[in-house]
Design goal:
There is one protein chain. The chain has no helices and 13 strands. It is mostly beta strands. The chain is globular, with a radius of gyration of 21 Å.
């Protein structure tokens, strides 16, 4: 079954009227500002031994390997497949989707996480845990979070949500791609998982800022 999320966008059109006699030369272009790159790094888990995790990034001849040890107390969050029956509000929910030529977006994942702190809609999307939004472990660069909500109540199928624009509803049908975020220990990480970590000041992975794991995501 294909699950599709449609996000409506309002496009504004600005019409500039020029005064008679003014020149029509285009304005000087502004200085080039390169787009901001990802603030996180993603890896495949190759092996786990004695508290150390061997990670790989890239593919083929471009594959790089590194070994990371997560100190005691490292906050590790795993996204696991779930069912609607496991959803107990209040929960943050993010829709991870990819652009679709026919529709606006094709839904890949509905990622739910227990509320960690006071929910603020100051930013476009809500973090699930430690600044992660749910798409960081993806292999597909097109996968993005396209909507966020606070699930306030849920009867196993229909829910009431709060969003940046006001109240809303959420419907979770049979077989929907539901994932839930749960805390785990480093020993529970498995080969074949996918891991994301925030970059530190030296652009190296910094597990002290939290770790996001996608169960079986590297397969």
């Amino acid at each position: 079954m294909l699950f599709v999320i449609t996000v409506a966008a309002l496009l504004g059109v600005l019409i500039l009227a020029q005064k008679a006699g003014q020149t029509e030369q285009p304005p000087e272009p502004s200085a080039f500002v390169p787009p901001e790159g990802p603030t996180y790094l993603a890896f495949d888990v190759e092996a786990v031994s004695g508290g150390k995790v061997r990670l790989a990034s890239g593919s083929g001849s471009e594959t790089d390997a590194t070994e990371v040890e997560f100190p005691a107390g490292t906050r590790i969050w795993r996204m696991e497949p779930a069912t609607a029956a496991e959803l107990t509000p209040p929960l943050v929910v993010n829709a991870v989707s990819v652009p679709n030529e026919v529709r606006n977006y094709s839904l890949r994942m509905m990622v739910f996480a227990p509320v960690q702190d006071t929910v603020s809609f100051d930013s476009p999307y809500l973090a699930l845990a430690d600044g992660f939004f749910g798409a960081e472990t993806s292999r597909d660069e097109k996968e993005k979070v396209v909507s966020s909500a606070l699930l306030e109540s849920f009867d196993g199928r229909d829910g009431v949500t709060k969003t940046a624009t006001g109240p809303g509803t959420l419907f979770v049908g049979d077989g929907a791609p539901v994932w839930i975020v749960r805390p785990i220990e480093a020993a529970q990480i498995q080969p074949g998982d996918r891991i994301a970590m925030h970059k530190g000041n030296d652009d190296a992975p910094d597990p002290s800022q939290g770790v996001l794991v996608l169960e079986g995501g590297a397969r």
